[in-house]
Amino acid sequence: MKIHVVKVKETVYSIAQKYNVPISRLIEMNNLPRSIKVTEGRSIIVPIYGEFVKLENGKNLKDLSLKYDVDEKVMTKLNRDHRNGLFFVLHRCKTSLVVSAYNNLYLTSTTAPAIIDAIGDELTSLAMFSYEVNRDGSLKDLNDLSSIEAANSKKVRSIMAITNLEDGQFSTELATTILSSEPVRNKLIESIIEKFREKGYTQVDVDFEYLGAENKERYVEFLKILKARLMAIDPNYKVSVALPPKTSSDQKGILYEGHDYDGIGKVVDNVYLMTYEWGYSKGDPQAVSPLNKVKEVMDYAITAIPKNKILMGIPLYGYDWTLPYKPGNPAAKTIDEVKAYELAEKYNAVIEYDEVSQAPYFNYFDENKVEHVVWFDDSRSYQAKFNYVKSLGILGLYNWVLGFDSPNNWRLIKENFIVKKEL
Predict the structure, then answer these.
(1) What is the pLDDT of residues 274-287, one digit of tens each?
(2) Catalytic residue among 40, 122, 132, 209, which?
(3) Which residue in 48, 375, 376, 405 could disulfide with 340, CB within 3.0 to 4.6 Å?
(4) Distance between CA atoms of 252 and 78, rounded to whole angstroms?
């Protein structure tokens, strides 16, 4: 697999000819329009399972085979007819890891089964989002049975996600009510166990956000009790948590102060690090998941939490902001990879790539002559994140969230990883 960035005046035909691949395969693999023209700056996945590299001065095929960990005899056979000083190198073996995702049933209430059927081969597990906690410890029900059935058919383990959402917002007050009352806390644990028995769940993911410093110790204590109760029923039952993207143990802010990475990491089975939303709908335009910022979070996380418990978050969406940006502007529109390419083609935009954040973006003017900027993820940025995941040696990665059409994420997961199955 090779990622090619479209240059000015290049066409689907010229790209296919350059890599000696069928034009139909190139169109199919990238959902390209049938027209010859391709948006400048767009990244294209080319279905060749290796790459062409230049041989440095004074180097030979043996040096290349050592550098890329490819058998020298194989290297020689592949390059009997090399041209222009370029040598073809096979990719290394795939990495085996866990791939999870969140299924936001507010977005996918009718489409989830079809989505799961399409991408289920690239998933280990799927968190059904979300069971909202009531103030008495009971849970609002979730219409998740068709999603669970679809997941089972693809050998994807379903996870029950619970949240402190109230009226569409994460509530510090609700979290405090739950965590500070032993009877209410016990009621919540009983409600979780009831759903396990009713729907066949074997893992609960606790996504309590905006806890505040006052709930830091209470939250760890709750997780300890929850874990012990579930283990007493079945030692295979698991507890995971979603964690905000901290860069230090004493990071300030209501989003961060209630989450003790070290304390939580000692208790739970897995953590889902929310390494996204630097660029968000009401904030200033920037990459949603800039790799330089993600690395700052991961650098801290792996010092506080065992690597074999960590899943790094990767978004399936981007945003379209109007310019000039001012605080209080209307919220940016949420878009996905497919929509981003449609906008770029419609408005004849050139897609640029920011090397620091490892993310694509482009500007355009709409019909009312209003300027926009779009930040999203494409094959280049997904591959950069996947390469980083490999380098960390962590448990795996997860996507937020199903319902956005970003096909290159799934294509590159398939190209890069052997996805573990637990069913």
Answers:
(1) 999 999 999 999 99
(2) 209
(3) 376
(4) 55
